[in-house]
What we know:
By secondary structure, the protein is an alpha+beta fold. The chain folds into three domains: 9-94, no CATH class; 101-208, Band 7 domain (Tetrahydropterin Synthase, Chain A), CATH 3.30.479; 213-272. It is built from seven helices and ten strands. Strands 7, 8, 9 and 10 form a four-stranded antiparallel beta sheet that branches. A three-stranded antiparallel beta sheet has the order 1-5-2. α1 (11-35) runs antiparallel to α2 (38-54) and α4 (141-157) crosses α5 (176-191). The protein is rod-shaped, with a radius of gyration of 40 Å.
Amino acid sequence: MNEHRGFSVAGIPFIGVCLVLLAIGITSLLRSAPEQDMAGMIAGVGVLAITSFMLKGFFQVAPNEGQVLQLFGKYAGTVREEGLRWTNPFFSRQRISLRVRNFESGKLKVNDSDGNPIEIAAVVVWQVLDTAEAVFCVDDYENYVHIQSESALRQMAQSYPYDAHEDGKPALRSHGDVINSHLRDEIQTRLGKAGVEVIEARISHLAYAQEIAQAMLQRQQADAIIAARTKIVEGAVGMVEMALDQLGQRGVVQLDEERKASMVSNLLVVLCSERGTQAVVNTGTLYNG
């Protein structure tokens, strides 16, 4: 079922029509009463009754709002024109907001693609596009949006790992744009049948579950330490290699393999140590101490 325009006319000009009918009815009663003219009195009462019934057809449409019209249970169209409107008094009307709305889902506890329990929540920005589908295709479209959004969030979270791996696969913590785009598409797929457009969907909360948070923090710290140590060792090896090359090229000293090994060991200790090193003066030789 698709939305189409419902019948309505401008309300302010139609007020004049009602006033004219009201005047005709009152005039007919006033003229017929002294003469006991039953036909005139019945006509006057009938005109007043019709006028009173026609007043039920007035309604207001606010900006970014739609009024869904039904005639004896059948969809009769949607009125989106702002201001005071008049339509068939037999129509029943239901107000539908067309404004942009947003909500934050609850914190869901799910397992990521690696099986790690995590907590995740999202903010969803949405808007009704088709009022007919929103009213007639689902029972309660607002509740439908909330439940289906959480379902899509759960499904998306199970498709990615929390942390990035070396294979380059997107992760929840490091690939925000990819994750948010996937989440939006996942929610839109579910809400399309309700006449709703998902404007934006973003992760608002992401953390490991409490039972593994401490262990995962230690793992992250270990990864950071290993990465830092690797960088330090790479730099130290490069500096040692440069020092040996320059000593050999300038002819400062001639070193055999054993002396080179000793120098490399000492330089690596100095460059890789976390604390300041102290000089030790060797008064003998490498061979006799």
